[in-house]
Write a structure and sequence with these properties.
Oligomer: single chain
Structural class: alpha+beta
Helix content: 40-55%
Bound molecules: adenosine-5'-diphosphate
Shape: rod-shaped
């Protein structure tokens, strides 16, 4: 209600101010016009008064100056111009339409004057300017009259003003209604703001203001709206700041999570085993790069694909299918061993494990591990047992056979007795060597073989080994040669272990040789080391075999080497012994042309005693 009143007062006072301003403007315009007419009238009268009478009052039928004034008048208020005698007779006159020339005034002696002629003859009052005609003999006066401008507040104009007032009276409520209608959205906006403030609950001040009945009226007006809008904007900017802070915090925690997840992924990628995670539907959701060398399938082909799309291994597929159908059981774990179709040389272990949360399953984790080494070792172990059994069985058979021979006839026949004893001794020696090698290997692997290194004169050691091997070489018809300088530098070795290494090399050089071949045991001294070489003219080996001969249980499967008894431990043991002495074993070999096995040992600095180098 109050707002309506204020609105009406506002509009009314606005119209009153407009009316006053318009009135003042009109009055001012009227005054200026009157002044202008006065200047013009007096000027014209003075100019006309200076003209000769004949020009002003021409003969009958002739145009005078007054006619030209009428014709060329530039003032719409021009009423008349006349030349009059004092007695009231007009000698010449012109008048604009609707104007009558009034009787002249008594001419003032002083000259030019003006007077107002009331609006009785004419409908409007007239301002007249007059003055004596200088050239006339009698008393003549020149007169010019102008209509007075209309008064803005003429009673005659009352109906007109009444009409305008009525129009305004009707306009006021119309304007008010229009303004009110235009303000309606603002009021609605205010209402909305109040609702939002009440809902957000973050502005107790605004809520209080809205609830206060004293403020109820003012809330509806524009001031109240602006007030609320300001407060709402404050509240909104505070909320935006809060949200910004929350967003910064959540961004930071997001980054932390991302960092953690990246770190975890990096850790998983570094694992030596390949990992696959399958979702409950059987599609791969995560795979580490290791699966490519293990399964021979690129990660890109595996990700987001069902098992059937990438897995070419029936064992793995069967396990994953069985595992999926087994349901959610944390204990269900399954491991298989297989040769992957993509990399047939490899042997893999695949272990599947259910991934379970509190109440739901996340899928299956598959760990793929390279079991090639273990597989080969297992195979080698099995081969070894079979081999050792065979190696032990054949000498035992021979010993048994010769034992029987001795028992049956050997006592009487000295030749049989000697032969039987020799064979039995050889076989015992063979078994002894095998058992010794096995014992040494096991000691090496248990770490209980500790070399007791002493300063040793190498040529003595080499000569001993040479002597031991000589009878075996002669038995096989092989020439054995020793090429060792007497003043060879001393080395620091464990004599017993080193003797085993030398014997193995010499035995192999004789064993993998043909009758009539040769074996050379040589030693040379370099700047920093001593090189002991066992050179033979035997069967040699291929570069691939040469790479592998120091592996445990490795034996060349060539027909030539295979037929010679052995158990693949000699070179493994020799290499280990050389490494225990911080030396190096190198092998040069050519298939069919012989081999050179070289041991490189560090030289010991020479001892000087009594000026003599030892
Ligand atoms: P073993 O002689 O008992 O089989 P080794 O470890 O001593 O075991 O030798 C491993 C393999 O290396 C042998 O089976 C043989 O084929 C090959 N080999 C060793 N020495 C020689 C050699 N001097 N010439 C040719 N082949 C050799």
């Amino acid at each position: 209600m109050k707002n309506n009143r204020i609105g009406l007062i506002l509009v009314g006072s606005m119209l009153a101010v407009i009316a006053v301003v318009v009135t003042l403007l009109l009055q001012r315009q009227q005054t200026e016009h009157a002044e202008q007419v006065r200047v013009q009238g007096l000027g014209m009268v003075r100019s006309l008064a200076a003209l000769p009478v004949a020009v002003l009052v021409p003969g009958k039928g002739q145009p005078g100056v007054l006619d030209s004034i009428l014709a060329y008048r530039d003032n719409p208020d021009f009423a008349y111009a006349a030349v009059s005698q004092d007695n009231g007779r007009n000698l010449a006159e012109v008048a604009s339409a609707g104007a009558l020339v009034p009787p002249p005034a008594v001419l003032a002696l002083t000259g030019f004057a003006e007077r107002q002629v009331a609006a009785d003859q004419n409908r409007r009052a007239i301002r007249e300017f007059y003055g004596p005609l200088a050239s006339a003999d009698e008393k003549l006066q020149v007169r010019i009259g102008y209509f007075e401008p209309r008064s803005p507040f003429n009673m005659k104009d009352l109906p007109f003003y009444a009409l305008i007032a009525l129009a305004m009276f009707l306009l006021v409520p119309l304007i008010y209604l229009v303004i009110k209608r235009e303000m309606a959205p603002l009021a609605a906006l205010g209402e909305q703001l109040r609702t939002v403030a009440a809902q957000s609950g973050a502005s107790p001040a605004l809520a209080a203001a809205s609830a206060d009945p004293a403020n109820a009226d003012s809330d509806a007006d524009v001031r109240g709206l602006a007030h609320k809008l300001n407060r709402y904007l404050d509240q909104a900017s505070a909320r935006i700041r809060e949200l910004e802070q929350e967003s910064v915090a959540s961004m930071a925690s997001g980054r932390l999570l991302e960092y953690g997840s990246n770190k975890m992924q990096a850790v998983l990628q570094c694992l030596p085993d390949g990992l696959l995670v399958l979702d409950p539907a059987g599609e791969v959701t995560f795979a580490t790069g290791k699966i490519e060398p293990l399964l021979g399938v690129p990660v890109a082909e595996v990700l987001s694909q069902p098992v059937e799309a990438w897995c070419r291994d029936p064992e793995l597929r069967a396990m994953l299918a069985r595992f999926r159908s087994a349901g959610l059981d944390t204990r269900s774990q399954m491991t298989i061993e297989f040769n992957p179709a993509g990399v047939p040389d490899k042997r893999l272990w695949a272990t599947a494990q259910a991934l379970l949360g509190h109440s739901m399953g996340y899928g299956t984790l598959v760990v793929l591990r390279d079991a090639t080494r273990e597989h080969l070792a297992r195979q080698a172990g099995n081969d070894f047992v079979a081999h050792v059994a065979h190696e032990l069985k054949s000498p035992l058979n021979v010993i048994g056979m010769y034992g029987e021979m001795l028992a049956d006839a050997g006592i009487d026949d000295p030749a049989v007795r000697v032969e039987a004893i020799n064979v039995i001794q050889d076989e015992v020696e063979r078994m002894n060597s095998l058992v010794n090698n096995l014992l040494n290997v096991s000691k090496l692997e248990m770490g209980s073989m500790r070399p007791e290194r002493h300063r040793v004169k190498l040529d003595d050691l080499l000569r001993d080994a040479f002597q031991q091997a000589r009878s075996r070489a002669e038995n096989k018809g092989i020439r054995l040669e020793l090429q060792v300088a007497r003043d060879l530098a001393a080395v620091s070795v464990d004599k017993d272990l080193f003797r085993i290494a030398l014997n193995n090399l010499l035995n192999n050089a004789i064993k993998y040789n043909q009758s009539g071949g040769s074996v050379v045991l040589a030693a040379e001294e370099g700047d920093a080391d001593v090189v002991i070489a066992v050179r033979d003219s035997g069967i040699g080996m291929t570069p691939e075999d040469r790479e592998r001969v120091t592996e445990k249980f490795f034996r060349v499967r060539e027909s030539g080497a295979e037929q010679r008894g052995g158990h693949g431990l000699g070179l493994y043991l020799t290499n280990q012994i050389v490494e225990l002495h911080h030396g190096r074993l190198t092998i040069d070999s050519e298939l069919g042309h012989g081999s050179v096995f070289s041991i490189h040992l560090k030289k010991m600095p020479a001892l000087v005693e009594g000026g003599q180098v030892l």
